[in-house]
Amino acid sequence: MNLLLDTHVALWVLVDSPRLGREARRWLTAERSTAWVSAASLWEIAIKHSLGRGDMPVSPEQALEQFRASGLRILPVQPEHAVAVAALPPIHADPFDRLLVAQALTEPMRLMTHDALIAHYSETVILI
Predict the structure, then answer these.
(1) Minimal CA–CA distance to 123: which of 107, 106, 105?
(2) Which tens digit of pLDDT belongs to each residue from 11-48?
(3) I want to staple 109 with a disulfide (CB 3.0 to 4.6 A). Which of 4, 9, 17, 72 is the partner?
(4) Rounded distance, CA 35 to CA 90, Å?
């Protein structure tokens, strides 16, 4: 199963955060699971890190290196992903999260997030 990780979830994977919880770890370590990080997440990290936000403690270069080293795959943003954003209902205003939802629905993938608002988009969202 392909799992697309929300930006914060991907960062939690890097630091083995206790916020992942038992259920999230079960999904991530399942034999048939492949975890992905969107290029949009790297873009989000780049923007927030350059603004000096404390919730983005790593640079985009560090994040990319660490994502790859930890075995996470990188999902590029395809034109179809961008177009699919237009079909989403206006549940969430964050453009990064909306793109992640569109990517997950287009591929298809299960989107793993801690944002309860994102779970309203689809039953395929895994809320942790």
Answers:
(1) 105
(2) 999 988 999 999 999 999 999 999 999 999 999 999 99
(3) 4
(4) 27
